[in-house]
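Researcher: Next entry in the queue.
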Amino acid sequence: MLIFRGVILFLCMSFLAPSVWAVSGFLRVTVNGSVESRPCKVNDGKPIEVNFNDVLTTRIENENYKQKMDYTLDCKTTGNPNMSVKFTGESAGFDTRYLKTSVTDLGVLFKAADNNIYMGSSFPFKYETPPELYVVLVKKSGAILPSGGFNATATMQVYYN
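Model: Structure for this entry, 161 residues:
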């Protein structure tokens, strides 16, 4: 008799188990898709060089030394997406908004038309109307700069918003 009760209990549990499983909330989810890359090529992968030639250290003020950055932008995209440009690099010791140069107290400010683009900040634009970009020499207020050459290096990042 005890064996008979065990078999009946087993059979009852077997019939109840599937309904318990269905109520317990098991669900198998499969996610499919593809990741699309729309790469951009800045200046055909070549460095962008800006040459200031001869600079009078006493005249570095009020955008006296402002040069246009000539660059190209080719993105594999359709339409006119929102994009941004950002410059990264080592900040000038006297002001973190500017790019550091090889000369102490001399920095570089990036601009899009009349808008300042500070280091690490981005500037939005539409792909079909890329901004005219400029670099401007700036110096620490009151600094007396030495004669000689200088250089600076930054990374220009262009990305979709």
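Model: The longest helix spans residues 2-23.
Researcher: Noted, moving on.
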